[in-house]
Structures are given as C-alpha cells and as structure tokens.
Amino acid sequence: MAMVVLLLCSSCLVVEVAAAAAPDDSTAAAGNGGCPSGKGERPLWVFGDSYADTGNLGNLGRDLTHAWYYPYGLTFPRRPTGRFSDGRVLTDFLASAVGIPTPVAYKLRRRGGGGLLSRGMNFAVGGSGVLDTGYFQRNISSQIDLFQKTLRGCAPTAGVAAVVVSGNDYSAVVDKNNGTSEAAIAYIPTVMRGLREQLRRLRDDVGMGKVIVTNLHPMGCTPYFTRTLNYSGCDTVANAGADQHNAALRSVLHDLDPTNRTFLLLDLHTPFLNDNSERFPVRLRPCCETFKADGYCGQEDEGGKKLYTVCDDPERHFYWDDVHPTQAAWAAVADAFTPAIHDFLST
C-alpha cells in the first residue's frame, strides 16, 4: 500500500480548493488587534495543516469542507468550528502548554476583539503542506508570508512559532504517481529542503527565537490504513515512511541548531504509538466511521440520510475520523509533550 495516500484531510482533497486562498488579505497590524506588546503573555504563531487548523478552511459545503458540519465539534464546543476533530486540536493544546488562550485563526480575525495579536495567530489550514500540495491551499511559505504582512509595522517581539507538518506533501506526490510508496519516500529529501528553508527563514528573517517543529505520527496506524486490515493492525510501509521522514527531520534541526536553543523537535510519534489500552480501548477504529472506504465522516445522501456512524463515547477512541485524533487523544498526546515545551521555553 502506498506510504501516504492520506494525510490530513484525505477526504477533503478538492476541499481545500479555493478555501484558504480566497480570504481577504488586508493585513495591516493595526486592523488585526494591534501589535503584540512583548509583555506578559508569549504569543504563539502557528503554521501547518488540519492537525493545527482552528477555522482557516472556509466553509464550501458539506462535501468539500465537512469540518464545518455535524458531527465535528460534537464534544467541544458542541458545534462545528472548522476543527478536524470532535473538539480541540493540536493548536489548542500547544497554546495551553505555552500558557495562553488559543490564538485566533487568521480567517476569523475580524470576529475577535482588540488585542488579538497579544496571543498570536493561527495561519494553519487543512490540506496544506511544506510545498504546494495541489489543493490550492497556502503552503508553509505562503503562511509565513501572511504572518509577516500581518505584523507589518510591528517591532520584533518575543513569541513562539509552531510548525506542524503531517504528511500532505507525501499524499500529494502519491496521488500524482499512481499511489506508489516509492514516490513518496523519494520525495522526503525535497520536503526536507523546503522545510529547512522555512525554518531558517523563521529564525533568520523573521527573528523567531523559539520554534516548535512536530515530527510525523505513525501514519500507518490511522484508520485510513487500518480499515483495510479490519482495524487489527498498522500498515508497516506507511509507518516506515514516517520513520524516514523523522530521521531526516532530526538531521535538519541538528544542522540548523546544534545546541537545541532555537528549535524544539516536538515528538508526536511516540505518544501516538503508546499502547494505552486502558485510556483508549479503541485505538485503530475511528469514532466517526463511514459506510464506504471512499466516504467521509458527516457524509449524507441526497435525502439527508447519514452515511456514517458515530460512537457513543469519543473518549474511548484515539481517532475521530479516518485521519484525525479525538480531543481526548490530543489531550493524552499533550500530557506527553507539555513538559518538553516548558523546558524549552524556560531557557
């Protein structure tokens, strides 16, 4: 099986189409809540994909952008908010670890009150990658461009950047090469070159002194892959690809920052693999399960009949849909990574 025919938002491929590229790009800082003060709270600036998106993917209808429809948001805040989960996602828990409220999604910035930039902003959007994924979304480079425009006229200030890369680059290249895992694995050096440049840019051009970079989770254990194995095991080829990505990422970060003072490699892979059967008795089967392999959570037929089922208790499941964790799973992962963030920010 291909290494990554998924990743974040595998069932929203066209999805993302004009969604994030369309928003209004007027970005004068004064119109977005003023400049960060540099005092008190440390702002968090988030770049990435649907593991981190808190509302930047526009609502283009259920078929294309189902994170804006039931049952997404079922646990929190009991309504869809554009998060790819039943509740909170990675960004929410990163903000908690940093010690601030969740930063506003860029697309929703005009709905917030004054002083929004004091806690940062989230530029991550579902379907995005380090490079262009073909889904017409802002890649990491374009998200950083938008960040710089947003802070135009502001003096440099202390803050933390988080870069979340979860596999869409590999999904895109697999789609272009008839689903071959070899193509995805061969693409790792290209992704790493692009990611290295964006991390260098955040440090050297933007002036970020603290940058958190996530590694890849074990992609072969997502329900997208485990479904074909009757939810009984993980796809070893996809997991091997994630391991190769993570090894290459460690090398990139060591080259950029041998003393580990600027960059923190945030380990998502290990807590995703932890066999916590007591906390998550259902680990490989999603809470929101589609009737068909090519369906999606929240899908309905023309008459409004549900083409999916939702479990009774999302807290017993690690995965919410075919790709994304439940809020409970993100909370467990955050329990593992929060001490590392605290240590990183204390130096």
TrEMBL record:
GO molecular-function term, one example from the UniProt record: hydrolase activity, acting on ester bonds
Source organism superkingdom: Eukaryota
Record keyword Cell membrane present: no
GO BP annotation list: lipid metabolic process
Pfam families: Lipase_GDSL
Endpoints of the signal sequence: 1-19
Coiled coil: none
Record's keyword terms, sorted: Hydrolase, Lipid metabolism, Signal
The family this protein is said to belong to: Belongs to the 'GDSL' lipolytic enzyme family.
Protein name (database record): SGNH hydrolase-type esterase domain-containing protein
Organism: Leersia perrieri
